[in-house]
């Protein structure tokens, strides 16, 4: 007997994230043009470095918008889970691109630290203030959706990096105007690069965890098994798999050893288990096979052979 519960929140719809990303893209174009022009006029590496990051932001926001739209497409005979993982792929691409930009920033900053370029601090100051205000607006637009989607979160990371970059540019501008400390401009660029690297590493780690189909970080598998086994009528749990389709969509499959009972009683038991999975562990997609004959009592996690078959006593 297999069971699954379809919940209302799984009905596909066009999410508000798509509209928010469109607004963010428009504002990002404004920042990009302003920073490139001002960066050349002021001869500021910090500002040009931030403009390079803004360019990757625009790329990231565009890819995120595409991914959000793809995620609304219905499942097909070939893509049975739908297109949700397009967003995970986009998050990986975004993280890698910002890491590359950070490396380029480090190279240019090292060169600048050995030179003493003339920097126009007043232009730097004006752009830092203006760019920072716009980045605040963009971050506010994306913040709510970033909590729900790794894809949007990766784009939000770009924007936060820009916001911190604007703060760094502001510091560089003050240093140049107050004491002609032009080296601060390059130092701020290195700071921006480090922020980018750290954020990109976090996104990559979470995306790789999803691709490897590891158990979600918030789920203790031993606790999960214990609570399932504690339900009256359940005698054992084996061949268990818990994974994430996306960071917010979790799934489970397992075999349950149960007392011999009627189909209607089995359905009641299954409903109780699915309620536990949803309300306690945020698992809304489950495939559960009920059995009255014990297989291997030690086979909590089944072994898949390299040939793609279930080996040994785990085959049914």
Account of the 3D structure:
With 316 residues, this protein is α+β, with helices and mostly antiparallel strands. It has 2 domains: 2-211, Up-down Bundle (Alpha-lytic protease prodomain-like); 221-314, 2-Layer Sandwich (Alpha-Beta Plaits). Helix content is 62%, strand content 11%. It has 8 helices and 4 strands. It has helices at residues 16-42, 45-71, 86-113, 121-146, 150-179, 183-211, 221-229, 263-281; strands at 2-3, 234-246, 249-258, 283-291. Strands 1-4-3-2 form a 4-stranded mixed sheet, covered by helices on one side. Helix 2 runs antiparallel to helix 3 (86-113). It is elongated, with a radius of gyration of 26 Å.
Please give the structural blueprint.
Elements lengths: L1 E2 L12 H27 L2 H27 L14 H28 L7 H26 L3 H30 L3 H29 L9 H9 L4 E13 L2 E10 L4 H19 L1 E9 L25
Parallel strand pairs: 3-4
Antiparallel strand pairs: 1-4, 2-3
The side-by-side strand order for the widest beta sheet comes to 1-4-3-2
| Spatial separation of the terminal alpha carbons | 13 Å
Tally of distinct domains? 2
| Class from helix and strand fractions | alpha+beta
Mean residue pLDDT: 77
Total helices: the number is: 8
Short précis:
This protein has 316 residues and is an alpha+beta fold. The chain contains 8 helices and 4 strands. The chain has helices at 16-42, 45-71, 86-113, 121-146, 150-179, 183-211, 221-229, 263-281, and strands at residues 2-3, 234-246, 249-258, 283-291.
């Amino acid at each position: 007997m297999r069971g699954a519960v379809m919940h209302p929140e799984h009905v596909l719809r066009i999410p508000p994230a798509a509209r928010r990303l469109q607004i963010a893209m428009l504002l990002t174009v404004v920042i990009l043009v302003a920073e490139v022009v001002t960066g050349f006029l002021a001869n500021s590496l910090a500002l040009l470095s931030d403009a390079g990051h803004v360019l990757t932001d625009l790329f990231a926001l565009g890819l995120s918008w595409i991914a959000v739209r793809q995620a609304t497409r219905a499942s097909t005979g070939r893509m049975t889970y739908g297109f949700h993982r397009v967003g995970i792929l986009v998050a990986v691409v975004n993280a890698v691109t910002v890491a590359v930009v950070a490396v380029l920033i480090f190279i240019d900053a090292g060169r600048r630290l050995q030179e003493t370029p003339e920097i126009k601090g007043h232009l730097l100051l004006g752009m830092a203030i203006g760019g920072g205000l716009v980045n605040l607006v963009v971050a506010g637009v994306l913040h709510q959706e970033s909590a729900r989607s790794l894809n949007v979160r990766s784009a939000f990371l770009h924007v936060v990096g820009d916001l911190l970059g604007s703060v760094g540019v502001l510091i560089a501008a003050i240093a140049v105007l107050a004491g002609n400390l032009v080296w601060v401009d390059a130092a701020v660029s290195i700071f921006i690069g480090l922020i980018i690297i750290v954020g990109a590493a976090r996104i990559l780690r979470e995306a790789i965890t999803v691709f490897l189909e590891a158990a979600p970080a918030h789920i203790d598998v031993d606790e999960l098994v214990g609570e399932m086994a504690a339900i009256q009528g359940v005698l054992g749990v084996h061949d268990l798999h818990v994974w994430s389709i996306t960071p917010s969509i979790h799934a489970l499959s397992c075999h349950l050893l149960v007392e011999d009972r009627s189909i209607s009683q089995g359905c009641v038991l299954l409903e109780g288990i699915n309620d536990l999975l949803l309300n306690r562990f945020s698992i809304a997609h489950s495939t559960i096979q009920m059995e009255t004959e014990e297989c291997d009592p030690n086979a909590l996690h089944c072994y898949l052979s390299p040939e793609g078959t279930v080996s040994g006593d785990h085959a049914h």
